[in-house]
Structure formats: structure tokens, C-alpha cells
Amino acid sequence: MKKTILRKYARLIAEVGANVQKGQEVFIVAGLDQPEFVAMVVDECYKLGAKRVVVDWDYQPLEKLHVRHQSVKTLSELTDYQEARWKHYVAALPCRIYLDSDDPDGLKGVNQAKMAKARQKKYPLIKGYRDQMENKYQWCIAAVPGEAWAKKLFPELSKRQAVEKLWEAILSTSRVTEDPVAAWKAHNASLAEHCAWLNGLDIDRLHYTAGNGTDFTVGMIPEAQFKGGGDTSLQGVFFNPNIPTEECFISPMRGVAEGVVHASKPLSWNGQLIDKFWIRFSEGKAVEWHADVNNEALTQMITMDEGSAYLGECALVPYDSPIQNSGILFYNTLFDENAACHLALGMGFADTIVGFEQKTLEECRAMGINDSMIHVDFMIGTADMAIDAITRDGRTVPVFRDGNWAF
Known about the structure:
Strands 5, 6, 11, 12, 13, 14, 18, 19 and 20 form a nine-stranded antiparallel β-sheet that branches. Strands 7-10-15-16-17 form a five-stranded antiparallel β-sheet, covered by helices on one side. The chain has a four-stranded parallel β-sheet with strand order 2-1-3-4. The protein is an alpha+beta fold. The two termini are about 40 Å apart. It has helices spanning about 5-15, 35-45, 60-70, 70-75, 80-90, 110-135, 145-155, 160-175, 180-200, 295-300, 320-325, 335, 360-365; strands at about 25-30, 50-60, 95-100, 140-145, 205-210, 215-220, 225-230, 230, 240, 250, 250-260, 265-270, 270-280, 285-295, 310-315, 340-345, 375-380, 385-390, 395-400, 405.
């Protein structure tokens, strides 16, 4: 891929994605796949005036070794130096940039029960720090090609050709055009218009149906609103948390969901693929489920904690989206969730509550925002999906027909 194009993408991530502010620290998490591009992102952060940029390198084979050889006690410890870093995050509120290139099958064969138990034990130790940072800092998730990921998508190509083709797909769906900044400004405006229309309906609940068996109703929090595209931190900084993004999303009312949803795409969770699965909800909680592929991982995910069986997000994405139209199944949630309507199990977003700035996190959760150690999106959108909004004044308004916006 031409360096001039990659430089535009790096600038997009630093300037439009994270929107690094002068004097701010930046922490980047990246795999070992594209070190030259990571260096470009670091350079762009410094050009925007970053005080310090720290890169934490990630490598799935090492994670498998840690899980294999360390005890659950060791895996779940919050060491002094780890706690010192969390305290620094709370005090400094640095930008966080995640450059995802993981192999969708990269943790296949790992001891799922051991890994889940360690995370369950460790989460309470870091939860207090996470809650203190909620909505106060900018973050951005973007992607770069990894060889294993690229070969899974394009097995007929050589490694070099597969990586190049994945670069092309990432850059195209991320709107890296001649002027990416202008493209993202227009895209954010379009998403804002859709959200405004949805918020004007005063929706009580959404009803989803599809030919694959999905028949599902989920309730809305009266004070919640749909959001999409860019966001503004409590520090007043506008940023784009996901590159790419096509969704209008909201956090639903915890405890109000009934029916069955069928996944329309595979889900990569913790480096393992879960496929051909369905979940049945009663009184808002997942009470029954099955996956033809990797049901053990699906069960681990849904039972991580009390909140992981409840919904934290409902996202509306037209089937006629750039990612769906690419014809590529990415096996990566960042992309696949933006190719279809999706739901998320686990933590909800307090900033979907109108006036959340004047409320505590606990107050937002008391209003119906779900709390959990996980937030996992899974795709349910299909070409024939219909979604109706039932409003608080009793109207039924078509929102989606044949997989796309009905207005």
C-alpha cells in the first residue's frame, strides 16, 4: 500500500478519531503486524502536540502461553505496577488508540474456563478505576491487516497479496478518500440526521422480525437517545470512537426484552469464533441459547457476570452499507457490526442518557443502563429484517424494511 495513503489513514486516526489535544498523553495498543504504520500514528499524534505517546504491543501467542502456564491466582492479580498505571490513567485521562489486527482464531485452543475465571476475579480490582474514567477521555478503535487475519479472508491469495487486499478493504470502508476529514464530517452529519429522526419518535420499544426466526422486542429508557458517529467527552473534546462506523445506537432498558434473536454473522470473541447461534430473552435476560459452532465460548460470554446476560446496546445499521456491500465477511466485530443491525450483551452507555453530564454513573445505571465487565456486539441484521418502533403514544412506525431504513 502506498505510504501517502497510509499517512492519510494515520492522520485520520490521530486527528479525527482520537482528536489528540496539545499536551495530552496517548496510549496505543497494537499487534506486531504493522509496526511501520504504528510509527506513522505515533508521529501524527506528536504533530498534533501530544506530550507523550506510549505503545503497548500485543501478541496473541504470548497470551495463550500466559493462560497455559500461569495460575488463575497469578492471572487475576492486579500488581503494584499495573495499579500505578490505572491510577495514572484516572489522573491524566490520556487518549486511547487501539489498532486491531488480531487473528480471529488466534486464541483457539486456549483454556476458556481458566481465562474467564481469571478475568472475573480481576475485573472488580479495576472496575473502580474504569468507572472514574467513564466518558471523560477520547478513544478510537481502528484496524490494520495482520497476515493470519488477511489469509482467513482471502485464502486463495499469497500472504503479501492478502494483506494488500485487506488494506484496500479497511481504507475503503474507513472513508480514506482524497479528503478523509471532509468525508467524515459529511458522514457524521448524515448519522446525526438519522438519530434526530429516531429521537423525535419517542420510542417505547422496538420490535425486530426476520425470516431466520428472529422475533424480538426490546424496551427503551424514556430518557435515552440514539447516538451515532462522533461523540464529545466530558472534557468537551469531539472524537470518533470507531473507524469505520455506520450505526445509530442506544442503550436499552435493562430487564425489558422478550423473544428470540438469531445471529446473522459469526462472532469473534476472545480470539475464538462463535457461529450459527441464537439467544432467547425473557424479562430482559438471556435465558436460553445455543451455538452450532463453539457453544462453550458463547456460554462463557453470557455467564461472565450478572450483567453479561442483559443487553447494553441496540444498534441500527442498514444492510445497504459500505461494509456489507464490500462483499467481505471480516470476522472482526469492528467491521461486521457496521455491516448489519446488532445487539450487545453487557455494559451499556451512560452517555446515551439525556443530561448524563449532570448525573453520576450510578444514577444512570439506576435509570436502566446495564453494568457488566463485558460489552460484546453480535450481528442480527439480515436482508429481510423488519423493525417497528412502538411509540409512547401508541403508534407503530416502520423503522426498517427489507434490511434498510424505511424513511
